[in-house]
């Protein structure tokens, strides 16, 4: 009995390991560059920029900025962005954004997960953030060096007492006040890597709680509709350096594989049926039209052949002759009624703040 019990435990453990491996593999596939390409293509266009192949969202309003349509929550991974954009949250948890003169804000793909890839500027009155620059890298333990400071126009500011759990679009400070607020705020950039996960803990929780007048709830990461992935699963660069964006060559290869597959992709069964159905109907119409005409000719021939027989009968037996019964007209007699130019980035790239 003991042997059976031990064997049962071993099998159960093995099943758990296999399940975990399968889940990890599924997550890996879902966040591949090719997966991002397919996921985001319906919502925008892929263009060439200084960082390689980038994605530009379609249908956004004038003055739109990343990390502006959604809200901030606090999770075990730190400050986490919850996106309300129609394309979802992946462009805020992987890769980062850059301003491209020709297109505006463009997303640069990456495969390393974070609750939000932003640098901060805050005070007791206001909290602001801006996307991390694409060329930013840090060590396997995280980043806590000099603040990464960007052009003030790239920041989104809100009152500190409205920072958490409120849609940013409803409380955002007018961008024309950015310069004024920026001069009074403290820049800070900090990412921790603990337990293998990136955590964004730059803005002190106590500062926000004091401004909001109460304790801030730690929410579940599932609220943001994202699944954390370890830094190692996202791929580390040379000498243990972690890059926010993926190598341009990887993005280019993913795009090429999608373009090669597209011309050979067979339409789905419903598509084939939809395309074939009108053709079949068009082909069926001539047959339906021709059939009554053939029946008319056949009946006319039979009538012509029957005429001499009736005449002979009338001559031989006139007393028995009767007028031929009029035949009904066949239904057929009634027929007939029926770019790859590279662009430059906006001035004001990220620079360490002394």
The number of E-state strands comes to 17
Topology pattern, helix = H, strand = E: HHEEEEHEEEEEEEEHHEEEHHEHHE
Radius of gyration over C-alpha positions, nearest whole angstrom: 36 Å
Q: How large is the count of helical segments?
A: 9
The biggest sheet amounts to: 4 strands, antiparallel
Describe the global form: globular
Proportion of helical residues: 25-40%
Low-pLDDT windows of residues: 4-30, 263-300, 306-351
Descriptive tags:
354 residues; alpha+beta; four-stranded antiparallel sheet; three-stranded antiparallel sheet; 9 helices; 17 strands; 36% helix; globular
Please sum up the structure shown.
This protein has 354 residues and is α+β, with helices and mostly antiparallel strands.
Written overview of the protein:
36% of the residues lie in helices and 20% in strands. It has 354 residues and is α+β, with helices and mostly antiparallel strands. It has a domain at 31-262. The protein has a four-stranded antiparallel beta sheet with strand order 12-8-7-13, covered by helices on one side. A three-stranded antiparallel beta sheet has the order 10-14-15, with no helix packed on it. The two termini are 70 Å apart.
Helix and strand arrangement:
Elements lengths: L1 H29 L2 H8 L3 E6 L2 E6 L12 E6 L2 E6 L6 H4 L2 E5 L3 E5 L9 E5 L3 E6 L5 E2 L3 E2 L4 E2 L6 E4 L8 H4 L6 H7 L1 E3 L2 E4 L2 E4 L4 H8 L18 H4 L7 E2 L4 H17 L4 H48 L34 E2 L2
Antiparallel strand pairs: 1-2, 3-4, 5-6, 7-8, 7-13, 8-12, 9-16, 10-14, 11-17, 14-15
């Amino acid at each position: 009995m003991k042997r059976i019990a031990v064997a049962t435990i071993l099998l159960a453990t093995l099943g758990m390991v296999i399940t975990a491996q399968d889940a990890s593999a599924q997550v890996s596939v879902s966040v591949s560059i090719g997966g991002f390409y397919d996921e985001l293509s319906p919502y925008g266009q892929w263009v060439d920029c200084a960082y390689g192949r980038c994605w530009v969202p379609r249908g956004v309003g004038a003055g739109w900025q990343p990390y502006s349509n959604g809200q901030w929550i606090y999770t075990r991974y730190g400050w986490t962005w919850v996106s309300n954009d129609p394309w979802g949250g992946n462009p805020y948890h992987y890769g980062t954004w850059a301003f491209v003169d020709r297109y505006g804000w463009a997303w640069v793909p990456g495969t390393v997960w974070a609750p939000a890839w932003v640098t901060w500027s805050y005070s007791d009155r206001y909290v602001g953030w801006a996307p991390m620059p694409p060329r930013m890298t840090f060590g396997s333990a995280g980043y806590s060096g000099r603040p990464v400071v960007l052009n003030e126009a790239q920041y989104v500011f809100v009152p500190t007492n409205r920072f958490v759990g409120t849609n940013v679009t409803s409380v955002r400070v007018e961008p024309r006040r950015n310069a004024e607020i920026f001069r009074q705020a403290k820049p800070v950039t900090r990412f921790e890597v603990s337990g293998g996960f990136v955590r964004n803990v730059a803005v002190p929780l106590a500062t926000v709680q004091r401004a909001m007048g109460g304790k801030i709830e730690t929410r579940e990461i599932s609220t943001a509709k994202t699944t954390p992935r370890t830094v190692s699963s996202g791929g580390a660069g040379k000498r243990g350096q972690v890059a926010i964006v993926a190598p341009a060559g990887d993005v280019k290869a993913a795009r090429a594989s999608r373009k090669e597959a597209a011309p050979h992709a067979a339409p789905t069964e419903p598509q084939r049926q939809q395309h074939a159905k009108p053709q079949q109907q068009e082909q069926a119409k001539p047959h339906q039209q021709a059939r009554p005409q053939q029946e008319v000719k056949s009946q006319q021939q039979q009538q012509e052949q029957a005429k001499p027989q009736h005449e002979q009968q009338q001559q031989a037996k006139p007393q028995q002759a009767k007028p031929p019964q009029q035949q009904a007209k066949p239904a057929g007699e009634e027929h007939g009624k029926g770019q790859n130019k590279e662009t430059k980035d906006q001035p004001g790239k990220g620079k360490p703040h002394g």
